[in-house]
Design a protein that fits this description.
Strand order of the largest sheet of chain B: 1-2
Largest sheet of chain A: 7 strands, mixed
CATH superfamily of the largest domain in chain B: MetI-like
CATH class of the largest domain in chain B: Mainly Alpha
Structural class of chain A: alpha/beta
Oligomer: heterodimer
CATH architecture of the largest domain in chain B: Orthogonal Bundle
Number of domains of chain A: 2
Helix content of chain A: 40-55%
Number of strands of chain B: 2
Shape of chain B: globular
Helix content of chain B: over 70%
Largest interface: A-B, 38 and 34 residues
Strand content of chain B: under 5%
Order of helices and strands of chain B: HHHHHHHEEHHHHHHH
Structural class of chain B: mainly alpha
Strand content of chain A: 5-15%
CATH superfamily of the largest domain in chain A: Periplasmic binding protein-like II
Distance between the termini of chain B: 23 Å
Number of helices of chain A: 17
CATH topology of the largest domain in chain B: MetI-like fold
Largest sheet of chain B: 2 strands, antiparallel
CATH class of the largest domain in chain A: Alpha Beta
CATH topology of the largest domain in chain A: D-Maltodextrin-Binding Protein, domain 2
CATH architecture of the largest domain in chain A: 3-Layer(aba) Sandwich
Number of strands of chain A: 13
């Protein structure tokens, strides 16, 4: 009797284990075989879970569903600041040949040196031709999402990286003008420091925020053309101009808040909002934070200018969506990308997200004061890819630069910083 | 690690028993077939993946494109010459030593106080033990705000004339130049130790309390008869008798502190100049942000070996104890 019971439970254990496997494959099948009844789900992968950006994404999905009510959509957003978690999830899915239907990726190196180089993306030239997009996006932007003449993704928005935000009240009370050059910046900063106000707010708990300032200094010192040459290896990091930029950056670090390493970018922007610090150098997602979260008014509570010496230059951060290889429903994905790249789609998404459209013919009236001015700047300015946000160089290089910057902010050792940049840049020439 | 311990222990007990009888009875087969699924799963998902990680750590897979060509010990050589990893080793060493010693001293002290048959002992026990119920992420976020230089208890401390930058301090105490880094005690790490001690001391208290309860009253009585003072009883008798507990506490705390990730990640991040960085955080960032898969795997293997330094002697000694 005892033995029988044992055998029985043994058999049960095994059958349980087997059904475990079974139900797993079955659930996969239903999502796959949904095609027989309805359609394969269109899975949109992003890290847009924050206040404005989630609304933007939902508006976009709503627009798509109005046009194609028979295609089921799944919003597969992964929470986590700046997409760190999402990128980790995406990497494991792509490596495991289980790509989402379409996913968010920054234009530039993150796309080209990453997924395109790994042979994981389908070219989209036919979609661009069919939709007549070749002259609707700026050429330099299309170049950022292309490799060897093939276009690999559709830009949905543009953020500007080289913006200096300032507290209007502090500037008015002290009779200061927002700085246009580095000299003016240091004059203003000295006056503020003398009054006991922190001149520059920095929150580099995540080191990319410091890299963000450094790249705007590089852009302001080198100009767009030389700045771009750094990422192709044509200009070495031990160039005299780079050294000048590093020294300027070092000088700027004398004017930051003491507790910078305990703050993230929102905490730093908050210092400016509260009037505890005067200036902040950060991308224009700060505007969304000021307006949506802190209820501040543009040009009333806070003002903005391009970072020193970068007038007429535009540090681009663009979110794009592409078509991975091995997706079961490429035609549906292309339909979604067509909506994403349309005037309608871009104007549904961007006013909510607080970015500007990537197309040059979008409806300007839908954007706020800052948006309108930036759309104008975007048309005429020279575009530069952002390093801190993965557009200028591969992620591996960016990680190394972030580490070097993190050390530099404390040690302020110009020589060892440049040495590290030079040795890390060996990767760029590959 | 728990699983490793369990299988090694079961092996230790099963193997000598079968050898003695030399003949496998049906019961053994039943036992074995019950164990089989978990043994198979552990071999695949624990040892199999450890092996895979070891293999990756010797490859050149340092981008999104997998590249399994043999790189020898290049990834390890790179890590040991890297500023960040050297800082990580220093931080882990300092954190482990400070964390374990404070937990042991404080845990023993509180347990002895609790053992004085005071009223409401169970309330105190629960108060001490409660932080254990939180996850390290919660602890990290709370202490991040408590010890933030511009908020938290510092507003109070400033009034009584004590100012500290806590985890934003970049100073290294007693520093010596070593490799690329300043070797010493990073001041910022002390803040992290405080948070970790706050969370884990309750656990040590519970273990020591159990140990104290296991010491028979006769021992104390006998010592009192011989004219020993209370202090002498604790110094010469009770605390030495608690040594096996101390060993267990060290093993458990060491594997927490050597693998620590969540507390640091939530509380301080890598810190300015990497004063609070640890191998776990570096491994995560280099693998999933930088796509340096082989470097990340090498860090994982080094972490495994460092934990093994504590666990293996413990397993060997516990096996000896059984046979």
């Amino acid at each position: 009797m005892k033995k029988k019971g044992l055998w029985l439970s043994l058999a049960l254990t095994f059958s349980l284990a087997l059904t475990g496997c079974n139900s797993d494959s079955a659930s996969k099948n239903t999502s796959g075989s949904g095609g027989e009844k309805g359609k394969e789900k269109l899975e949109i992968f992003s890290w847009w879970t924050g206040a404005g950006e989630e609304d933007g994404l939902k508006a976009l999905i709503k627009l798509f569903q109005e046009k194609y009510p028979d295609i089921p959509v799944e919003n597969a957003a992964v929470a986590g600041g700046a997409g760190t978690n999402a990128k980790a999830v995406l990497a494991s899915r792509m490596q495991g040949n289980d790509p989402p239907a379409t996913f968010q990726v920054h234009g530039g190196a993150e796309l080209n040196a990453g997924w395109v180089a790994a042979g994981k993306m389908e070219p989209l030239n036919d979609l661009y031709e069919k939709e007549g997009w070749m002259d609707k996006f700026p050429k330099s932007l299309i170049d950022m999402v292309s490799k060897d003449g093939k276009i690999y993704s559709v830009p949905v928005n543009i953020h500007r990286g080289n913006v200096l935000w300032y507290n209007k009240k502090i500037f008015d009370e002290n009779g200061l003008q927002p700085p246009k050059t580095f000299d003016e910046f240091f004059q203003v900063a000295d006056k503020l420091k003398a009054k006991g106000i922190t001149p520059l707010a920095l929150g580099d708990k995540e080191p990319w925020a410091a890299t963000h300032i450094f790249e705007t200094v590089l852009l302001g010192t080198l100009g767009v053309d030389d700045y771009k040459k750094l990422w192709t290896g044509e200009l070495s990091f031990d160039d005299a101009k780079v050294k000048e930029a590093v020294n300027t950056f070092k000088k700027m670090l004398n004017y930051i808040n003491e507790d910078h390493s305990s703050r993230n970018w929102q905490d730093a922007a908050q210092l400016v909002a509260k009037g505890e610090a005067a200036m902040n150098i950060m991308g224009d997602w700060v505007k969304g934070y000021f307006v949506n979260d802190l209820k501040l008014k543009v040009n009333e509570d806070f003002g903005y200018v391009p970072t020193p010496n970068t007038d007429g230059q535009f540090m681009v951060i663009t979110d794009t969506f592409g078509l991975p290889k091995g997706v079961k429903n490429p035609d549906d994905v292309k339909k979604f990308l067509a909506v994403l790249g349309s005037v309608e789609g871009q104007d549904a998404f961007n006013p909510l997200k607080g970015s500007i459209p990537a197309r040059i013919d979008a409806d300007v009236s839908k954007y706020d004061e800052y948006g309108k001015a930036t759309i104008e700047d975007f048309k005429t300015a020279k575009l530069a890819p952002s390093l801190a946000h993965g557009s200028a160089a591969p992620e591996g290089f960016v990680t190394k630069v972030n580490q070097a910057v993190n050390i530099f902010v404390t040690q302020k050792d110009v020589k060892s910083f440049i040495d590290t940049l030079v040795s890390a840049s060996a990767e760029l020439k590959k | 690690m728990e699983t490793v311990k369990v299988t090694a222990e079961t092996k230790a007990t099963v193997v000598p028993a079968t050898r003695k009888k030399r003949k496998l009875t049906a019961d053994h087969w039943f036992a074995f077939s019950f164990l089989l699924p978990s043994i198979v799963l552990i071999f695949i998902f624990v040892y199999g993946f450890i092996g895979w990680t070891g293999y990756v750590s010797l490859s050149s897979w340092n981008s999104l494109v997998p590249d399994f060509s043999f790189a020898g010990l290049k990834n390890y050589a790179y890590l040991f010459s890297d500023f960040r990893f050297q800082a990580d080793l220093r931080n882990t060493l300092v954190f482990t030593i400070l964390f374990i010693s404070v937990v042991i001293i404080l845990g023993q002290f509180l347990a002895i106080l609790l053992d004085q048959k005071l009223r409401g002992e169970s309330i105190f026990r629960n108060i001490f033990f409660f932080p254990m119920a939180l996850s390290f992420v919660v602890t990290g976020v709370v202490w991040q705000w408590l010890l933030n230089p511009s908020t938290g208890i510092n507003l109070f401390l400033k009034k009584i004339g004590f100012e500290s930058k806590w985890y934003t301090d970049t100073n290294i105490l007693a520093s010596l130049h070593w490799g690329k880094i300043e070797f010493g005690v990073p001041v910022a790490m002390i803040a992290v130790v405080i948070a970790a001690v706050w969370q884990m001391t309750g656990f040590a208290v519970a273990m020591y309390l159990a140990g104290l309860r296991a010491i028979p009253d006769e021992v104390r009585e006998a010592a009192r008869m011989d004219g020993a003072t209370e202090f002498q009883i604790y110094r010469k008798i009770i605390i030495p008798l608690l040594r096996p507990i101390t060993v267990s506490v060290i093993i458990i705390m060491a594997h927490i502190s050597l693998k620590i990730f969540d507390l640091i990640y939530a509380m301080t991040g890598p810190g300015a100049n990497f004063v609070t960085d640890v191998p776990g955080v570096y491994m995560f960032e280099t693998t999933f942000r930088g796509n340096y898969y082989a470097n990340g795997a090498a860090i994982a293997i080094i972490m495994l070996l460092s934990v093994a330094l504590f666990i293996v002697p413990y397993l060997i000694s516990s096996r000896k104890g059984e046979s």
